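Subject: Interface between my chains keeps coming out wrong

I've been trying for a while to get a sensible model of this assembly. When I model each chain on its own everything looks fine, but I need the whole thing in one frame so I can look at the contacts. Pasting all components below, labels as-is. Any help appreciated, I'm running out of ideas.
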Amino acid sequence: DAGITQSPRHKVTETGTPVTLRCHQTENHRYMYWYRQDPGHGLRLIHYSYGVKDTDKGEVSDGYSVSRSKTEDFLLTLESATSSQTSVYFCASRKVGDEQYFGPGTRLTVT
Amino acid sequence: GQQLNQSPQSMFIQEGEDVSMNCTSSSIFNTWLWYKQDPGEGPVLLIALYKAGELTSNGRLTAQFGITRKDSFLNISASIPSDVGIYFCAGQETSNTGNQFYFGTGTSLTVIP
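Reply #2:
Try treating it as a single job with all components included. I did that and got this:
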């Protein structure tokens, strides 16, 4: 358990509204990741961070942006939510040379 | 992105039976990982494999890193009801900005008491 929390845990929002999900870790891990999980697709990487202010795109980054202003926080923003972004979002973190530890997930519904 | 093919998609077994699942990739990975996910929770790491050919055990779980570095399998011996969940394989590759992880689509395991 890497002390990873996600907020909110559940959110319902309307199409076209902006949404920000927060991931917070207390382990001083260098790397942080955002995934989405959908039936039949497993976990797919949206964006990841390899240090404060250092981020890169994953395989499903369109429609998402991220920011990392502090080691402990990694924010995922949907600038204008769409129904296709209804999903369960997981954050993960890890230190150099170690494996990923996952947060509890955020269930997002876009109506 | 990388494609990981995980099979079977689902399994229904009797308590006490052994379970085997595997994962194949079109690309080479430096590390193979196996996770278990319970409903409403995030995935939890079960086993990590770092070298081609490596065979690693964790209690009743055994996993192997394929020689070609494109596949891995997970075995669970003498299954019990708490083994129920979704099992994911993941491959890790190294890039110049860090490591990326690619996940299989999962194997849903049901253990019938």
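Reply #3:
Confirming on my end. The radius of gyration of chain B is 14 Å.
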